[in-house]
Amino acid sequence: MKRGLLLGLVLTFAFSGISLGAAPTEDGASLLEQRCSVCHPSARPKAAKKTPAEWESTVSRMIGKGAQLNAVEKKSLIDYLGKTYKP
Ligand code: HEC
Predict the structure, then answer these.
(1) Is there a domain that residue 79 lies in?
(2) What separation in angstroms does the CA of 16 have from each of 8, 45, 80?
(3) d(CA 65, CA 12)
(4) Could you give the CA distance from residue 65 to residue 42 in angstroms, rounded to a whole number?
(5) Whose CA is nearest to atom 37 of ligand 1?
(6) What is the pLDDT of residues 8-58, one digit of tens each?
(7) Which residues have CB under 8 Å from 28's CB, separation 6+?
(8) Residue 61 sits in which domain range?
(9) CA-to-CA distance for 80 and 56, rounded, in angstroms?
């Protein structure tokens, strides 16, 4: 009985840890919708198919134009774009 309760607590912490790790601002899909729809619709990047290296240079170019992304967000977005919108 006590063991079961303890296990339950450990699992609860484990799962809340996972949801904390996926904070909304670092989620690639949300970043794409929020930060890449300022100057053109997010449909513009979604219509493109690029390798991770090409996304890296596109996103850097967009940051040069004024896209708001910190280093962590940039990496997370490039990972997401590279996996989702590939040739
Ligand atoms: C500050 C304004 C601005 C923001 C924010 C912005 N873009 Fe752009 N983007 C542009 C402009 C202007 C063009 C068209 C001119 C060009 O291609 O350089 C463009 C064109 C594009 C293109 C088509 C050209 C190509 O290189 O394939 C893609 C893809 C793209 N943007 C992706 C993104 C992504 C991904 C983000 C989010 C990180 C983003 N953009 C955020 C201004 C912006």
Answers:
(1) yes
(2) 12, 32, 23
(3) 43
(4) 15
(5) 36
(6) 545 455 554 444 444 445 799 999 999 999 999 999 999 999 999 999 999
(7) 76, 77, 79, 80, 81, 84
(8) 24-84
(9) 11
Instruction: Provide CB contacts within 8 A for 57, sequence distance 6+.
Output: none
Q: Residue 59: CB within 6 Å of ligand 1?
A: yes
Reference 33, options 23, 45, 49, 22; nearest CA is 45
64 lines ligand 1 (CB under 6 A): no
CATH of the domain at 78: 1.10.760.10
Report yes or no on 3 lying in a domain: no
pTM, two decimals, is: 0.81
Provide the domain count of the chain: 1
